[in-house]
Design a protein that fits this description.
single chain, alpha+beta, 28% helix
Length: 162
């Protein structure tokens, strides 16, 4: 009998000048991008942590430490591909993924479907298994002042991790 397991991920990065904005595996037009050791895609980082947690495999820091120079500037889809492999090795299969992006700027509504498609593609699942939505903080706090972007991800996986 297969078991169901839930994983939850969170990530946040500061918006800075001079970097492209990568979110959910796509480039979003904006005057600033996310600071980070890799491309700073907080959406894909939250997805990775959720999947790793559900499979009992720790977190991104365990697998992709920011002190390791080979991860500098890496496209975060590389992390998702590796996490996908680890989850499969743990005998787990993604049932569904729900992502919430928290950002005051830029307006993300026009980019949610392309993100959904990009995330589903890198995970090798149907788009119907992925949900991506955006919320603002109505100008409250650092995210509300446009200082950064955060993402939350929850996954349901089926299987019995080893």
């Amino acid at each position: 009998m297969s078991g169901l397991r839930v994983g939850h991920g969170f990530d946040v990065h500061r918006l800075v000048a001079g970097r492209p904005l990568r979110l959910g595996g796509i480039e979003v037009p904006h005057g600033r991008g996310l600071e980070g050791h890799s491309d700073g895609d907080c959406v894909l980082h939250a997805v990775c942590d959720a999947l790793l947690g559900a499979a009992g495999e720790g977190d991104m820091g365990r697998h992709f430490p920011s002190k390791d120079p080979r991860w500098r500037g890496v496209d975060s889809r590389v992390f998702v591909e590796e996490v996908r492999r680890l989850v499969a090795e743990a005998r787990c299969r993604l049932v569904n993924l729900d992502v919430t992006i928290i950002a005051q700027e830029p307006v993300l509504a026009p980019h949610l479907e392309p993100m959904r498609a990009a995330i589903a593609a890198v995970l090798g699942v149907e788009a119907g298994q992925v949900s991506v939505k955006a919320k603002s903080t109505d100008h409250l706090g650092a995210l509300g002042r446009g200082e950064g972007i955060a993402a939350l991800a929850t996954v349901l996986v089926e299987g019995e991790p080893t």
